[in-house]
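Form 7-S
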Amino acid sequence: MDTFWESVKRDERAMTRKRVLIIGGVVMVAVAVIVSPIAAKHQEPAAVCETQDPGTLPDSPLYFVKNWKRSIHLSFTFDTREKAALSLKFADEDALAISALCDKEEYILGGKECGRFQAQFDRTLEWVEEARQKGKNVEELIDGVKDDHLWQQQVLGAALGKAPELSIQALLWRAPLEG
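Output:
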């Protein structure tokens, strides 16, 4: 049986380990959030049609980190045109994620991702409109949105072609019905 002081020391060591793990986790997330925008600034600005990586997919246990990173990145972006471009990039990643999920035959997750894609694309349009209302030049941004949306439609059409007929409704659940 431990003495009182031995149990206190053991509890202190356990608390110290927990603190180190928590601080280490926070530091790792902070570094990831800070370093990725800096690294992106040093790369050539890629046309969204050149987006090749969907990032973390919704079937990953770390998918929440992708959402946090996006939220933090948008929070620290103050120019509405930059927010629109960033949101468009996220929509491109979501379109690629839908395609990757269809490749993995994860059609229900693909359908949910369709909703996220649509919401992200809608946010892009909102940021473009807000920038336009603030008197900023948005012609180049609108051209990018048009080009990227055509590319997104191609990616999503190809994904839809991979899905079995029973799963197509899950992928189209956000599509408006035409009269």
